[in-house]
Amino acid sequence: MISPLSTTAARSVRRAGLLWAVALVLVVIAAIALPAFRTPVSINSLLAALAPIVLISVGQAIAVLYGGIDLSVGAVAGLSTVVLSLHTLVPGGAPVAVLLALAAGLLIGVLNGAGVIAGINPLLMTFAMAGVVQGLALLLQSTPDAAVPFDLVRVFSVKVGPVPVFAIVALVALVLAWLWMSQSRLGRVVQAAGYDQRIAVRLGFPVRRATIVAFALAGLLAAMGGLAIVTRTFAADALVGSSSIIDSIATVLVAGIVITGGVGSILSVLPAAVIIAVVGQIITLTGTDAYYQTIFKGLLLLAAMGVYQLAGKGIRLPWRLRGAAIITKEAAR
Amino acid sequence: MDAAAVTCTGVSKSFGATRAVSGISFTIQPGEVLALVGENGAGKSTLMNLLSGAFPADEGTISIAPPGGGRGRAVAMVHQELSLFDNLTVAENLELDRSARGLFVSERSSRAEAQRVIDELGVGVSVDATVGDLTVGQRQLVEVAKAIAVPPTLLILDEPTSSLEGPQVELLFAAVRRLTALGTAVIFVSHRMDELFELCATVLVMRDGEQVEFGRLEGHSRTSLVESMVGRETSALFPDRAAATPAGAIAELELRDVGLAGRLESISLSLLPGRVTAIAGLDGHGQGEIAEILAGALRPTSGEVLVRGEAVRLRGPRGAVRRGIGYIAPNRRLDGLLLDKSVAANAMLAAGPRLFRGGVYSGRRERSIVGGIIADLAVKCSSMLQPIVELSGGNQQKVLVGRWLVFPDLRVLVLNDPTRGVDVGSRAQIYSAIRAIAADGVAVALISTDMQEILGLSDEIHVVYSGRLMGALDAEVATERAVMHLAMGAHDDD
Amino acid sequence: MNRVRSTLARVPAQLWVAYGLVLACLLLLALSTTGGLSPDRVLRILSNAAPLGVVAIAQTIVIINRGIDLSVGPIMNTAGIMVALLSVQPGATLAGTIAVVLVAGAAIGLVNGVLLAYTRIPPLLGTLATAAIIQGVYSLITRGQPKGTIPGELRDLADGRILGSAFSGSLVVWLVLLVVVGVLLSRTVAGRRFYAVGTSPRASWLSGVPVRSHTLVAYIASGMLAALAGVLLIAYSGSPSLTAADNYALNSVVAAVIGGAALSGGAGGMVGTFAGVAVLSLLTTVLNSFNVPSAVQLIVNGTVLIAMLFVNGRILGSRRR
User: Fold this and answer.
1) Which residue in A has a C-alpha nearest to residue B129's C-alpha?
2) What is the ipTM of this complex?
3) Domain spanning A9-26+41-311: CATH 1.10.10
4) Choosing among B85, B98, B108, B338, which should be mutated to test the A contact, i.e. which has the most A CBs within 10 A?
5) Residue A260 distance to chain C (closest CA, Å)
6) Is the terminal CB of chain A with fewer CB neighbours within 10 Å at N or C?
7) Strands across the sheet containing B18-28
8) Which residue of B has its CA nearest to C212?
């Protein structure tokens, strides 16, 4: 069958489907075993929590597929909530503030990418950037007259049926990101560079451009995630994204995206996020200690890595630890 | 007279202090196939990289005519190292390589194009197959398909048949003939004399970075060509063979009916002290696995490994090393060298615990030991603390040999492709060192795809094909043809 | 004389940069209005930096071996909580308590080591996961309220002057460890092999180096040293906390990297890590003495780190070419 999708992308649809099956089973079990799970309140909170985590995880997925990682996503999310609250000081008001928040995320991503191109390991670069961004956010947060633009946020928190608008935004963003990754030339270069950067450089791919774009998208999506959080919390909080880092990494791993890069599909991020959110919900509803959440997340990370390693076949993972430096052609000989 | 497709005049290139190529001048007409020959380290790779534009020459000019028809590249190169992404399909790999315009890929046209190229080449793979699932030979052909999708002015093939079996080699030759009929010039690099003489019209011989000769190939015989490459009679490169091992000597290391699921079947061979036992064959037919089993890096799924007559379970290379089995792996950059570390650190990597009493390191002792092998093997380095990455390939390899020279109580040495990328001078020294090691009573196993090396250095040649041993030959009387015959799957009694 | 010159030439450039930064910070400190520069003040700053110093030693060992240990922060918290809990048990002695805590740290390190040596889980994620699990476990056990008290004698030991000198107990512990670990890493065959494993695990493995054992030892040492650092931290802070050491994991990585360690393995050392810790603590002190608000401090720290990483990357890159 000739489909408009690349073969690898088409196969990833099938794999995502399997993950959806797992998610569905989980939901059914939860719905049957816990009456509290079926209430509209519970469903609402689940859907509301999904949007930001999906957005941030898609951004993280792009960074990981490139072969890196982005530890600044939490800080960027926090920053965008603060930037939004500065709408009172910005000509044009709330809509302009939204654009500014997104632009900030994009710019931070570009800076991250630039650092990686300059030879800094993505882990350290994004960690350092996270510090800078968090400091900036905390600084701006103490600005007098800053306030969350309630009218605009109320518009964003509108629901279509039981589904919040931002959940739809997240879904659209995910699908677009997936299509971009699999069907656009630059997206494929990102994945190729993630799998084996030496070959990509040797073949003359635009690896530098791909680096910038990958991290820029991660930053942009993290900013969108921050805005999604505001529709839930109605507050500007620089530190709101601090748990998002481990959540996004866990989601990316459960989605079957290999941490060294190049292998995996963004499409699976959605069912992975659902799985994590549902189990989190189950833990909350059964009255089990919230502390179990952290333990669970840790175990989940290990389990996900274990499962995918056992299941992985035919795909040769490069032995060498991925260095961040972009190798020039001369050195690649 | 049509303008030449490729013209090189006085081309030279140096990397730091090393002069990689100098004074190269030749032309290739459209439709002509040039054989580029020379020992490993002669400068062939550098010349190919200069032609493909990977870096500019320091002196001289290279001019390559633009591709006919306006489409495609001037130069397409098929490297020895495959540049394929295992996680993507054949079609996707081919697509990535097309410098097509547009933000998005048109899946339909991409697959159609890939199908066309694959069909034309005749290699029977599905364009939707994940490259990681293909055999090495199939991958090599996909790599070729990538390069010839649109006929370039110049096609450079670097050892393209090293993993191809008979019928696949024919496909490649047919493709080359089609391209030359269309006017593409081809540079063909290979160690296989038969292929060179079948396909090529002209020859460029390089030695130690310089051009030794350039002209028609017909004047040459196989021997004269090899002599031109090596610069001396082949026999002078290799030290004399040792006297025959006394009867009744116990094999230091023996494989009995060893198998490895899906890769090897009933391998039996013995490594006797004082003898160099070679394992020859086409790339990817199992000799690498045999080497790793001998070195303890791979565990066989059936059969026995015997050390001095006793069946053992070598628990990894550590267990092998403890029993005096040393290993020099094929890809020194990835598997042998500690690139950023000093010559001394590299040399002492294996012997450290045995040479330093109580595990305490002594700079003075290290200096005397390492100084010894630097002198014995004539390693060219500014000091033993120099980072080994700065040394030439030949000197790096000498240090790796030295790693086992300093190892006390060595019983077996397994060498896998020990002189790839090593210049002639260093090779001679390494061969002498290996013979000397054997003379000391060490059992040496030599795994190599270099025919001259196998024929010249070993005492006994086992040939492997598709994971099975096809036969054994006495190296004293063996010929390249006899070895290739077995390596291509023919049986001993044919 | 020639030997000295050639040894100096081989000092990695990163060390010069790191110590240059230390000097710059000392200079700024001297210029600040609050307190100025005196040996006493510097020693006090270093003494307060001892917890970070010890955990940075742990991180350096692991990084040299081509790993990373993000669980050192939670291990430090665990140590603090355990000290507080155990000290109020009947029959508890300080020595005994500390011994138990160190063993616990080593045990956690063993789990990390086994996980990373025997599976292909990347150290970054593996230790991130165990960090989360450890955090969850002690949060659960203490229910958010760590119990117990810190024995006074611990505080005296940590703060008290050793042999009448200006050096506090914590500082002495840190410096002694620096020397001991430094000697082990550079003067023993096994210690030097950590660098080999970090440079190329496969080449080392093929040459008979027990790569798995080295990884196990690296993480066990890391766990034990992190536990010790936790003890020093709680001696300094006086009360057990679930989150006090949360930033120590990444800060220890930063300190090691400033000192010349590379996440790709095979590089780094005690001399460099000391400089890294000194830079971090001096920078904080300098910023505090100039009354820089903490938000801006975050920005400055991050920017300095990026600058150092960039410089290090250039140095490393130019050497390889």
Assistant:
1) A7
2) 0.88
3) no
4) B85
5) 9
6) N
7) B59-64, B6-15, B18-28, B210-216, B202-207, B33-37, B185-189, B154-158, B75-78
8) B318
